[in-house]
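About this split. The held-out portion is used to measure sequence recovery: a designer receives only the structure tokens and must propose an amino acid at every position. Recovery is the fraction of positions where the proposal matches the reference. Here is one held-out target exactly as it appears in the evaluation file.
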């Protein structure tokens, strides 16, 4: 029975996605995995070496991301753009180092649980987007961007109000927002490939931002469940 169900899933996947799209998604997810490995290396560097860049790593990471976005894919600069992406992954991991170091003292299992939970949610939402009707989740784009803007304003307001309720609401709402972005971004990547875009580096960047956004907030939520408040805000 399990074999039949798996074969049905594979057949559905193959029927809905053309071979060029499937190959593109393989490139995207392979690049995403490389970026996650780079982020893991960044966490290691921050936690277990003397090199702790702190806030500087976030600034450098933002610069690398902007350089990647500002460098259009011309088919010849893939290695350069991939370097920008891996550098962004490295600095993203380094910027999360202080949070994960604190959590490792509270309960190291939280990190593993958050990673497994994030991976499971990411895979499920990605599969749902791939197997859904063509473009059925693209309508979320406007709603997601509106919510993202609202969450940014909520963060700004809470800098002055210091409301625990607003902080908690922001934490859970952004987690749900990231899940929505996984659905939207996955289908958008598929449609972009159908229209001729082969920029798997840019597409991997979009999914990496979704993944690490979910992971960060899930770590904070799980840490709060054991009765402690992480030093890093969402």
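Reference sequence for scoring:
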């Amino acid at each position: 029975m399990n074999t039949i169900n798996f074969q049905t899933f594979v057949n559905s996947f193959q029927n809905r996605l053309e071979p060029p799209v499937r190959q593109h998604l393989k490139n995207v997810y392979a690049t995403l995995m490389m970026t996650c490995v780079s982020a893991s290396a960044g966490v290691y560097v921050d936690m277990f070496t003397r090199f702790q860049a702190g806030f500087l790593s976030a600034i450098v990471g933002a610069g690398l991301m902007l350089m990647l976005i500002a460098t259009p894919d011309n088919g010849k600069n893939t290695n350069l753009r991939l370097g920008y992406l891996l550098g962004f992954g490295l600095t993203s991991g380094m910027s999360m180092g202080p949070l994960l170091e604190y959590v490792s003292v509270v309960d190291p299992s939280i990190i593993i649980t958050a990673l497994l939970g994030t991976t499971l949610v990411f895979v499920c939402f990605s599969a749902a987007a791939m197997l859904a009707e063509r473009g059925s989740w693209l309508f979320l784009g406007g709603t997601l961007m509106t919510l993202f803007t609202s969450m940014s304003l909520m963060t700004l307001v809470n800098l002055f109000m210091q409301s625990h309720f607003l902080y908690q609401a922001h934490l859970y709402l952004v987690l749900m927002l990231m899940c929505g972005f996984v659905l939207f971004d996955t289908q958008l990547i598929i449609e972009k490939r159908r229209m001729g875009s082969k920029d798997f580096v840019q597409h991997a960047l979009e999914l990496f931002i979704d993944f690490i956004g979910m992971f960060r907030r899930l770590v904070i939520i799980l840490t709060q469940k054991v009765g402690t408040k992480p030093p890093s805000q969402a």
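Annotator remark: The mean pLDDT is 89.
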